[in-house]
Amino acid sequence: MSSQGSFSEYFVDRTPLSSPPSSLSPPPPSSPPPSLSPPVDPEQLQAKLARPRTCWVFNHMPDEDPETKYFNLANGRMEWRCKYCPKKYLLNGGTRCPKVHLRAIHLIDEKSPRDNKVKKRQLSMEDSITMAKKYPHSRRRLSEEASGLSIDPDVLEKLYINFLASCNQPFRLVECSAFRSLLSFLNEDVEVWLPNSSDLVTTWLMRQRDHERERVQCRLWSAYTRIHLSLDLWTSPNHMAILGVIATFISDDSALESFVLALRQVKGDHSGENIAKYVMEVIQEWGIAPKLGYIQMDNASNNDTMMKHVSIGKLLHLIPLSLY
Ligand SMILES: [Zn+2]
């Protein structure tokens, strides 16, 4: 994969601070340094390495430890690497570029985790409002006791389904009078729009699933890099064999994207051939065969067989019908 190739240019140094990387030692007198990369002063470098890093940008590098040093092999200089995309900046010019990059591309700044939580919540609400405006639905009023004007029912639907899914709440929660009393106390208009039966919640859920699917499909089509898959097969608490398929890629607006494409129940044995059938189904459903990159999975022998079958399946999928 092309994006992996660039990693060969770099290395991560984890040696103790007393022994800086050998490649950074000044060159011997007989070999003058290249004109474009002046020699690195070992004392300056030592001081730089010994100073603890306090700037917040170092918390957003691939390694969790902000003290991990990354060096550019071409010129031996220390650099900052982005945790969320392939971007990197030399550090001799300070940390301005990483700060601008994190703020502009990933909407991350130096604020405290609490502030970031609030910001994340605001973004999630803004996303919900945008999605709700994109897919408006006409709907029936469920109560005449309030005006219902203070609540946008499309946004309520989106936020309510998000809440059910992320907090694993039952559909019948809307039938619980104590729950409804709490919501009505906060805003009586909720009675006008919030379903009073779990059947209507199911309709909401399926509708939101379709909207989300359309959004994910658009993001997959906008992938700038190849689409890499992570697979895992495990047994759920209710004894079902579930295959999870997650796609990871960089989008055309330079964001690192990751989506769950499927959580599929695997019927039959767990042979590579059988699992490959489900993996190919997911690949075809999302139309990502031409952009498929690496597939990551456990080091189990049935996964080797599975990969052979997926390779054959992908090949057949990519050959135009006229060549059969
Ligand atoms: Zn980045």
Molecular structure report:
This protein is an alpha+beta fold and 324 residues long. It folds into three domains: 2-106, no CATH class; 113-216, no CATH class; 224-323, Nucleotidyltransferase, domain 5 (2-Layer Sandwich), CATH 3.30.420.40. It is 41% helix and 15% strand. The protein is built from ten helices and eight strands. The protein has helices at residues 2-5, 42-50, 96-106, 113-134, 153-167, 177-186, 190-193, 198-221, 272-286, 301-318, and strands spanning 10-13, 69-72, 78-81, 88-90, 227-235, 241-250, 256-265, 292-296. Strand 6 and strand 7 (256-265) form a beta hairpin. Helix 4 (113-134) crosses helix 5 (153-167) and helix 9 packs across helix 10. It is globular and about 75 Å long. The two termini are 28 Å apart. Residues 1-37 and 320-324 have low confidence and may be disordered.
How many strands, which pairing sense, and closed or not: the largest β-sheet? 4 strands, antiparallel
- Indicate the radius of gyration in whole angstroms: 26 Å
Classify the helix fraction into a percent range: 40-55%
Number of domains: 3
Arithmetic mean pLDDT: 80
Q: State the low-pLDDT regions, or none.
A: 1-37, 320-324
Question: What fraction of residues sit in β-strands?
Answer: 15-25%
Number of helices, counting only DSSP H or I runs of 4 residues or more: 10
- Give the names of the bound compounds: zinc ion
Task: Give the strand tally.
Answer: 8
